[in-house]
Amino acid sequence: MSFPHYDFYKASGVDWLGVIPGHWDVVPLKRNIAFLTSGSRGWADHYSEDGAIFIRIGNLTRDRSSLDLRNVQRVAVPEGIEGERTKVEPGDILFSITAYLGSVAVVPESIGLAYVSQHVALVRLKRGVILPEWIAYLALSSVGKTYLEAQGYGGTKVQLSLEDISRLPIVCPPLSEQVAIVSFLDRETAKIDALVEEQQRLIDLLNEKRQATISRAISKGLNPLLANKTSGTAIYGPVPDTWVVLRLRFVVGKIESGTSVNSIDIPAPENAIGILKTSSVYSGEFDYTENKAVLDDEISRVSCPVKSGALIVSRMNTPDLVGAAGLSLYDRPNIYLPDRLWQVHIKGMSPEFVDYWTKSEIYRYQIKMACAGTSSSMQNISQDQFLNLYITRPPISEQNSIVQYLESTVAEIKALMDNATDAVALLQERRAALISAAVTGKIDVRDALTRNAEAA
Predict the structure, then answer these.
(1) pTM of the complete model
(2) What residue ranges do the domains of the chain occupy?
(3) Which of 333, 448, 346 is nearest to 399 (CA)?
(4) Coil, strand, or helix at residue 403?
(5) Cα–Cα distance for residue pair 96/104, rounded to 1 Å
(6) H or E element in which residue 398 lies
């Protein structure tokens, strides 16, 4: 779909904004602010099972202007003026001022009693001049993102000040035009979001298929006509006659771990010393490029370089990622393990088969059971717990056949997932470009609503 341009443009006075429609203005947000604040420190002491909604950064999404309230913290509001100052009202605009700078949301009419955390800025506009939704779309546009990211200050923790928020350049058309453009963007982005959701569902289904394919192959084999026997464990049920179910400890030669050292969060240059991140196994495949460059005066402390044929396993992580593993295919003499990762050496089995086993539903179930009762946010599995997991051991020739089958089948599924992921990326790029073009006046969408209404 193509859109016309405005008849007349003028210089905006902002280098990275360029020209704007001749009847639009550019003003700092502060000219339209009635009230500006951020949350108070110390409210974590007042968390409760019920009470008011406590809006945190996680409730502000990066590319949407709506609050995500699927996971909310409740708070018993402390007495005093701080509660009144940080209470939100419908139509308020919320900005993240730490972490993901510039994430934004407009408070809906249905919010009820809610307050902002210290990491969230609250902007309340003067009435009848500019729409909150217009500001939100501007913040999500390339103009808003460029400005907010440029203002971030600090070292390891980048943040924005309230003054930074107040100076956000606002491209300001007449109010009636704001209404038309916001309505257009609401409709068009909803269409794009529906297509994205459809692709995400496809990715989820393909991921489930991949995991089910792996689980079936490593627990039942490839030939459903083979005679079965009891495995002796409830988690596996019957297994082929020639298979053995045993504790992992009987097929592990040794487990090594490294040392956590001071580093900088950039990958180590070629031939330099790097320390692995736990994210090196997040995808289920080992990615040695997920490392950090070790500081020169810490190099003498590193230990345990990455070895070929070893499983790299995350021993401590969030519930979904503890136990995540990937197989190292090559020696990496300059890349070392931290203490949160194990290097597991396999004996008497195909390392590739064991690697696929760590991608199975049965493996994840056992990890979950081993970690039961530990922290809900960060979990740890001990070596003894890990070695007590049950694994199937087919004859080595059958292990190799299963690995060959899974390499081919999983690659086909992954190709479909990659196609869907690429489609999502293109849709999101189109969404971002459409928002930026509309709110900066690069396209004129005022008649698009009328044309669509007539077509309907």
Answers:
(1) 0.81
(2) 25-171, 246-377
(3) 346
(4) helix
(5) 7
(6) helix 396-439
- The span from the CA of 252 to the CA of 250, in Å, is 6
CA atoms within 13 Å, Cβ hemisphere of 217 = 27
Closest to 219 in 3D by CA, of 209, 231, 204: 231
Identical fold for domains 25-171 and 246-377, yes or no, is: yes
Is the pLDDT at 272 greater than 60? The verdict is yes
The residue-averaged pLDDT of 391-413 equals 97
Q: How many residues does the chain have?
A: 456
Fold for domain 25-171?
Adenine-n6-DNA-methyltransferase TaqI; Chain A, domain 2 (3.90.220)
Helix 175-220 vs helix 132-140: crossing angle, to nearest 10:
50
The tens digit of pLDDT for each residue in 133-176 reads 999 999 999 888 888 888 876 655 578 889 999 999 999 999 99
The CATH number of the structural domain formed by 246-377 is 3.90.220.20
pLDDT at 451: 60
Residue 265 has pLDDT above 90, yes or no: no
Q: How far, in Å, CA of 336 to CA of 304, rounded?
A: 6
Mean of the per-residue pLDDT values for the chain?
91
Map residue 143 onto helix, strand or coil: helix
**For residues 428 and 143, what is the distance between their CA atoms, to the nearest angstrom?**
17
Alpha-carbon gap, residue 197 to 136, rounded angstroms: 22
Secondary-structure percent of the chain, ordered helix, strand, coil, rounded to 5: 40, 25, 40
How many other CB atoms are found less than 10 A from the CB of residue 358? 23
Q: In degrees, to the nearest 5, what angle opens at C-alpha 108 toward C-alphas 105 and 111?
A: 110
Distances from the Cα of 63 to the Cαs of 103, 135, 144, 172, 198, in angstroms?
A: 7, 14, 12, 21, 17
The per-residue pLDDT for 452 is 57
Nearest to 369 by CA among 233, 244, 240, 254: 233
Tens-place pLDDT, residues 45-86: 888 888 899 999 889 988 888 998 888 889 888 777 677 889
Mean pLDDT of 414-428: 96
Percent of the chain with pLDDT over 90: 72
- Structure tokens, 324: 């995540």
Taking each helix axis as running N to C, give the angle between helix 132-140 and helix 396-439, from 0 to 180 degrees, rounded to the nearest 10: 130
Over residues 232-248, mean pLDDT: 94
Helix (H) or strand (E) holding 198: helix 175-220
Segment 367-374 mean pLDDT = 79
Instruction: For residue 375, count CB atoms less than 10 angstroms from its CB and return exposed for 0-12, middle for 13-18, buried for 19 or more.
Output: exposed
